[in-house]
Design goal:
14 strands, seven-stranded mixed sheet, Metallo-beta-lactamase, Chain A
């Protein structure tokens, strides 16, 4: 299983990275986890977006889903698509209100929103309790603790497991999500500080504590807000987890 970082900047794009978005490949199957601001452009450096087999959205904050509007334009208006996008609709596994949220993102005014239906080129599937199969991938959604309905994804393929937190504050479900994972791709939005708001994000130390408690083999830190001190976040994570730990970077590829 191959992981490509399309974007890893938290809350909004940074000078060196789009917002959150991740491409996973196994054999000839490709799925994306989130498509934040700028990630569709980055994706085109690696694959044709028409080659995607499914997109999973952890939640509907713009830094994780804003490029869905751009993906809609591509699938609806490309003059020479490699296949008919209405005959091969792209599976979109997302929170239940995603069709309305994405229609509002795409349509410029209330009149157009009232008649916008994106199901011509997308198959919307509310995030289920049971695992979703996409080719060799099995994706289990686990509810997280955030400002809105949010899920992490536990992705298994080729005998390996990648756990992706999405956005979350500390919660018991994180240990379930990351249990014995080969890679924990965890948000680490900021360095630890005493007045951090609850149920919003993880610090580097908190992400590392999850990795340790869950017996994850490797920790990749992502979703770092542009004003945060990346090296401080990395240092506190390494102090709490003795496995391989690093900050991800946009356009980097990792073997899981």
């Amino acid at each position: 299983m191959k992981l490509t970082i399309l974007g890893c900047s938290g809350s909004f794009p940074g000078p060196d990275s789009p917002s959150s978005g991740y491409l996973l490949e196994s054999g000839g199957t490709r799925i994306a986890l989130d498509l934040g601001n700028g990630t569709l452009g980055a994706m085109q450096r690696f694959v044709d977006p028409f080659q995607l087999d499914a997109v999973f959205f952890s939640h509907l904050h713009p830094d994780h889903c804003a490029d869905f509007a751009a993906l809609t334009v591509l699938r609806r208006y490309h003059p020479n698509p490699p296949h008919d996008p209405t005959a091969r609709r792209l599976r979109v596994i997302a929170p239940e209100n995603a069709p309305e949220r994405f229609a509002a993102l795409y349509a410029p005014d209330a009149a157009e929103r009232a008649e916008t239906d994106l199901s011509d080129v997308f198959e919307f599937i509310p995030i289920p309790a049971e695992p979703v199969r996409v080719g060799p991938f099995e994706v289990q959604a686990v509810p997280m603790a955030h400002l809105c309905a949010s899920w992490g994804f536990r992705v298994a393929a080729e005998g390996k497991v990648l756990a992706y937190t999405g956005d979350t504050g500390p919660c018991p479900q994180l240990t379930e999500l990351a249990a014995d994972a080969d890679v924990l791709l965890s948000e680490a939005s900021w360095a630890n500080f005493p007045d951090a708001p609850e149920g919003v994000h993880l610090s580097g130390r908190q992400a590392a504590e999850v990795a340790k408690a869950a017996r994850a083999r490797r920790l990749l830190l992502t979703h770092i807000v542009p004003w945060a001190d990346r090296e401080e976040i990395l240092a506190e994570a390494k102090a709490a987890f003795d496995g391989p730990t690093e900050l991800v970077a946009a356009d980097r590829t990792y073997d899981v």
